[in-house]
Write a structure and sequence with these properties.
Layout (H helix, E strand, L loop, with lengths): L1 H7 L13 E6 L2 E7 L8 H11 L8 E6 L11 H7 L4 E6 L9 H8 L3 E4 L3 H7 L1 H9 L3 E8 L4 E3 L11 H12 L3 E5 H7 L6 E2 L2 E2 L6 E5 L11 H5 L4 E5 L1 H4 L2 H9 L2 E4 L2 E2 L3 E2 L1 H12 L3 E4 L3 H9 L5 E6 L10 E2 L15 E9 L2 E8 L1 H7 L9
Parallel strand pairs: 3-4, 4-5, 6-16, 6-17, 8-11, 8-16, 11-12, 12-13
Antiparallel strand pairs: 1-2, 1-3, 7-18, 9-10, 14-15, 17-20, 19-20
Length: 382
C-alpha cells in the first residue's frame, strides 16, 4: 500500500478536482502491474494498473489489488473502476481509505463484496488519507487546499524588528518556493508584506521569468494601498490581484479607484481574535476562479489566523541555521496570548530534508485537529 501511495503522489496537482490515487497489482507474491491517476479525464489508477499488467504479458485474473482510495462505482468521465476490477477477475482488493463522500462511502466496496470479491479496508489508512487532503478541501469545505510557507531562524524569526528578511533562507530554499508558487493558482500575503517587500508573487526559476497568467495574487489587509504608490502588483498585475479587506474599506473611494484598475476588492468580516474570516474568501476563490491550490507567504499574524481557523492544510517550514536573538524580531506565528501548553495548536511532521543550508520540514494537522475541522460531504469526483 505504501508503494501505491508513492505512485499516487506522482499525480499530485494534475488530477484536480479528482483525488490522486495509486494502485498495485500483486499475484503469487509478485508485483505484476501498477499505476496512478495521472490527470483529470485520464483513466483511474486501478485501470492503469490493469493495463500495466496486460502490457507486460501478465494475466491479472486471480490477483490482489492494493489501491489507496476505495474504487469508484459510478459513471463519470471514465467508467466505474469496480466493473474493470470484476471484468479482470481480481479476487482480493485492499483499500487504503474509504471514499469520504457520505453518499458514496462504502458503495464501491459493498458492490465488490456482493460480487464475490474479498475487500479489506483501512490499510495504511493515515498515509492514504493524507493523499486526499486536497480533495477533501475541494469537496468538503469547497475551498482551495492551503499550503502555508514559512522561512524562519532557529529562534523562530522571519524578519528583524525593522522588517528586514533578505534573506532568511538559502537560495535553494527560495528556488523551492518558486516551485510551490508554480503549482498554486493563487499566492496569499498580508498587508505588511505588500507594503514592505513590494512583492511580485510570480513563479520564477532558472534565471527565467515564468508566466503568471492564470495565477492570482491575494492580499489580506485592513489598509488599502493607494494606486499612486507604484506597487508592482498594481502596476503590472492589477487584473490578477485581489485584496481582502474590511467591509468598510471595500465600500470606500479607495476601493473604487482600485477596482477601476481591475483589482478585485472583496470584503471579509472579522472573527474575534482570529483576524479576517479567511474561509469565506477562500470559498469565493474556489467558486469564482477554480482555485484548487493556494500558497500563503504572509507574515506571522496571517499564518496564525490560518492555523487558528483550521485552514493551514499543510505547513512547509524552512528552518535556517541562524539566530537573531532579538525578542522584538518578527515571529513566524504571532497574535495570541497563551497561558498553558495544552492550548498549543498541534501538527505532525510528515517529511524533513536538507535543502541548501536549511532544513525543509513538512507538517500536517494532527489527527485531533483533523477530527475537529472535518465536516461536510466530499465525493471522489469525475
Amino acid at each position: 500500500m505504501h508503494r501505491a501511495a508513492s505512485l499516487a503522489r506522482k499525480g499530485r496537482g494534475n488530477t484536480a478536482p479528482n483525488p490522486c490515487v495509486g494502485a498495485v497489482l500483486v499475484k503469487n507474491g509478485e508485483v505484476i502491474g501498477q499505476g496512478w491517476h495521472e490527470a483529470r479525464g485520464r483513466p483511474h489508477a486501478e485501470v492503469m494498473a490493469l493495463e500495466s499488467a496486460r502490457e507486460a504479458g501478465r494475466d491479472p485474473r486471480g490477483a490482489s489489488l492494493f489501491v489507496t482510495l476505495e474504487p469508484c462505482n459510478h459513471h463519470g468521465a471514465t467508467p466505474p473502476c469496480t466493473r474493470a476490477i470484476l471484468d479482470a477477475g481480481i479476487e482480493r482488493v485492499y483499500v487504503g481509505t474509504a471514499d469520504p463522500n457520505p453518499r458514496a462511502r462504502g458503495g464501491g466496496a459493498q458492490f465488490l463484496r456482493e460480487s464475490g470479491v474479498l475487500v479489506e479496508t483501512g490499510i495504511a489508512e493515515q498515509a492514504c488519507r493524507d493523499l486526499i487532503r486536497d480533495f477533501e478541501c475541494w469537496h468538503v469545505q469547497e475551498r482551495p487546499h492551503v499550503r502555508l510557507k514559512l522561512a524562519a531562524t532557529l529562534d523562530g524569526r522571519i524578519a528583524t524588528r525593522s522588517g528586514d528578511s533578505a534573506w532568511v533562507s538559502s537560495r535553494e530554499a527560495r528556488q523551492e518556493v518558486h516551485r510551490l508558487r508554480q503549482g498554486s493558482q493563487a499566492v496569499l500575503v498580508g498587508g505588511n508584506t505588500l507594503y514592505e517587500d513590494d512583492p511580485q508573487l510570480t513563479p520564477r526559476g532558472g534565471g527565467q521569468e515564468q508566466t503568471s497568467q492564470g495565477k492570482l495574487a491575494v492580499v489580506a489587509t485592513s489598509r488599502l494601498p493607494d494606486p499612486e504608490d507604484g506597487l508592482f502588483l498594481l502596476r503590472n498585475r492589477p487584473g490578477e490581484t485581489i485584496i481582502w479587506t474590511t467591509p468598510g474599506q471595500a465600500e470606500g473611494n479607495a476601493a473604487e479607484r482600485l477596482r477601476s484598475l481591475g483589482v478585485g476588492v472583496w470584503p471579509l468580516e472579522g472573527l474575534s481574535g482570529c483576524g479576517f474570516d479567511l474561509a469565506s474568501g477562500l470559498r469565493r476563490l474556489y467558486r469564482e476562479h477554480a482555485c484548487y491550490y493556494l500558497l500563503c507567504e504572509g507574515g506571522g499574524h496571517l499564518a496564525l489566523s490560518l492555523c487558528q481557523q483550521g485552514l493551514a492544510d499543510e505547513i512547509v517550514y524552512f528552518l535556517a541555521p541562524r539566530i537573531l536573538g532579538d525578542e522584538q524580531g518578527r515571529s513566524a506565528f504571532a497574535g495570541r496570548s497563551v497561558e498553558e501548553m495544552q492550548q498549543a495548536l498541534s501538527y505532525r511532521i510528515v517529511d524533513y530534508r536538507g535543502i541548501g543550508r536549511d532544513l525543509k520540514i513538512t507538517l500536517l494537522p494532527s489527527p485531533e485537529e483533523d477530527n475537529r475541522q472535518q465536516s461536510g460531504n466530499p465525493s471522489r469526483g469525475e
